[in-house]
Amino acid sequence: MTEYTADEMMTVTAARALRDGMTCFVGIGLPSAAANLARARHAPNLVLIYESGTIGAKPDTLPLSIGDGILALTADAVVSVPEIFNYWLQPGRIDVGFLGAAQVDRFGNINTTVIGPDYDQPKVRLPGAGGAPEIAASCREVIIVLRQRERTFVDSVDFITSVGFGAGPGSRQRLGLGGAGPQKIITDLGVLQPSPHTAEFVLTGVYPGVLVSDVQRQTGWDLQVSAELAEIPAPLPEELAALRALQAASAEGTEA
Fold first, then answer.
1. Domains (ranges, CATH) in the chain?
2. What is the model's pLDDT at position 153?
3. What pTM value is reported for the model?
4. Fewest Cβ atoms nearer than 10 Å: which of 70, 146, 175, 253?
């Protein structure tokens, strides 16, 4: 069996969630690696959109930032940031958006603003919202990607930066949010998806060698388990080879 890391398992799982022909709002880091792996492997017509204004970017290395020149050089078009948000994102023209989080709760609400109950005197002040609230509101669906830890997966976030399902069923509709909201939380232990009845995230898949109790131990709420819990297949050798080739090319470019 080919050896792989937890981050590689998470990246491959995120890549598998993307389908050919989708439009995907991509962030830097693991989401970018997942999106570019999908385009290299099974979704050659995946349209990558970065917040900097590049549409249809086709980088052969992983970009270092949303302003990396490789994105503009390989894009079908480069437009202004206001156009990305006002024309492409807000009207619901983007199929899927990737988001990370400092905290996520049982309803998929995201905090990237402050840790602690006092906004004015927090324990930690985080980078903030960026474009995440609009991505969460307007993409047809959202995939959240982050490592699963009890301090990160909390019963209720300290601050709602980006709305998932708010307080539960009907919250998005009451707020006038057009997108379907977060449909998967992909972690280094498995995959969570929202219950169609409660909108609470439940465990639907685990990685090889991961126990349900391992996931529950790293979750700050009483994590329910789907009756159809699946074991997610390990990365194929071809998937790992393609991912590592992207990472190696990026490392060579950085050194150069």
1. 6-255 (3.40.1080.10)
2. 98
3. 0.94
4. 175
